């Protein structure tokens, strides 16, 4: 990105910004004023005199649009169609004022009901009669102790008991009565409830009346869209500063579009200063440029961590992990096929980015499901084809799933720390963490998974001597990696406590090891989700098989669709959690300032 500062005449402020809007190149940034400059420069002084009116109109249209979208449309025969747009706006505004008034009344009445509820139903006229007869009526809230100390010779009535508080009505009590004296209610609970019902009925009537105008929502949206370009100009001008005769505007433009920016400003007497944006400039926007296969995962990045300017683009890594973790969450070729179909449908509807994410994840899920021998809950070697054995026995062997999840977690952390080194260099605590992962990899293989890993490459079992040798050399290698990790952490600890080297080293040694174990174990959720989905799919198959063929087919379709939706929700949530917490917290800085140039939104 190139930082650009434009200085021109005050009278040309709006034409210059409109020219920028037509070009659609500049990401406008608000100019930050120092305390000394603020006295001489005025921020946002270039906004036109009609700015307040334009913003008021937009706010009113937004309020109308949200109101019409929030109600159920009335049947066609009840819809209002004889009024003009201006008349409709007047009627909607009246209804909104009425709705706001009723909502305020409801809040007051509900608060009044809460105050009166402990006293129960009583006749206000009876209270007035007693007061006219010179009988002092006092409503008192008493604690248990105050109630026990009350002189029972005083005429009283116990209204209610709640959470250790007694609501008592006293008649002609002494002035020093214990407890919290409440003002004598002038409205009965019955009347308040009746008013509440009336207010609710009025609110429902307002909603029905708004429903008669709901079909105008699209027209209101069009009117608001017509204002969007003008509002964009005003917002851009508010980011500028002015000295009176001159104004200045700052923004960012991609390096390959600088010439286009210069051409758009050529008709004006405007000075343009250009310089490369600093790597740590928090105002500089991020513009991602990935191929069509990876671009869909930009939406995942933007929804969670974002990306800081100057940070290396890690969208490809997020895509790789999303597809890998997502396929392991499903672990079923049938559900993977459904996900791929959903992705293709989204692409056909025009949402290519999300469609690519789902389609690619679904295709890989089909491959993983076939390797594991599972299709809509039918497991090869267990529920179908008992004599066959899938390449991966994750669906039928819990211990194999446990070991596989350990390796997946360690591989993810190895990838994470490799990315951190790519982002920040070898002279960081990520180097030591990477060596810890390598040590754990070798130790788990040597002591827990030698035969499991060997079974992938050979059908011949290992001899006890071969297993012992693998354990011996594996443990030695693991110790070597562990010692190298400690040495690296001592040399390059994380800077948590500033320049306090001893504190940084101790904290890095502690947090690095415990954090690694926690992060690796977190990846076991993948197989917990996959196994739970597999069990639900198996239950659907078992129940469906107890009925006749038509009912079986219907139950299987509905049941598997339900399980697929649950699996899809779990896949998105937990996959994103693993990526942006366990994996991303080690190698992603993140940020939310994405390139959004000032441009026209309407033709």
What would your notes on this structure say?
- By secondary structure, the chain is an alpha+beta fold.
- It has 3 domains: 2-61 and 226-276, 2-Layer Sandwich (Alpha-Beta Plaits), CATH 3.30.70.2170; 123-184, no CATH class; 292-587, no CATH class.
- The protein has helices at residues 13-23, 35-38, 51-69, 85-116, 124-132, 144-149, 189-211, 217-238, 258-265, 292-295, 298-303, 315-330, 333-348, 352-372, 398-424, 429-447, 450-457, 464-491, 501-522, 525-544, 549-587; strands at 2-9, 27-29, 42-43, 137-143, 156-162, 165-171, 180-182, 241-242, 246-253, 271-276, 374-375, 378-379.
- Strands 1, 2, 3, 8, 9 and 10 form a 6-stranded antiparallel beta sheet that branches.
- A hairpin with a 3-residue loop joins β8 (241-242) and β9 (246-253).
- The longest helix is centred in the C-terminal third of the chain and has 39 residues, at 549-587.
- The chain starts with a strand and ends in a 16-residue tail after the last helix.
- The mean pLDDT is 86.
Tags for this model:
alpha+beta, 3 domains, six-stranded antiparallel beta sheet, 603 residues, 12 strands, 9% strand, four-stranded antiparallel beta sheet, single chain, Alpha-Beta Plaits, 21 helices, extended
Entry summary:
60% of the residues lie in helices and 9% in strands. By secondary structure, it is of the alpha+beta class.
- The percent range for strand residues is 5-15%
Assign a percent range to the helix content: 55-70%
The major sheet is characterized as: 6 strands, antiparallel
| Overall SS class | alpha+beta
Shape: extended
Q: Outline the low-pLDDT stretches.
A: none
Give the mean pLDDT: 86
* Number of separate strands: 12
The total tally of domains equals: 3
Distance between the termini: 28 Å
Q: What is the CA-atom radius of gyration, in angstroms?
A: 35 Å
Number of helices: 21
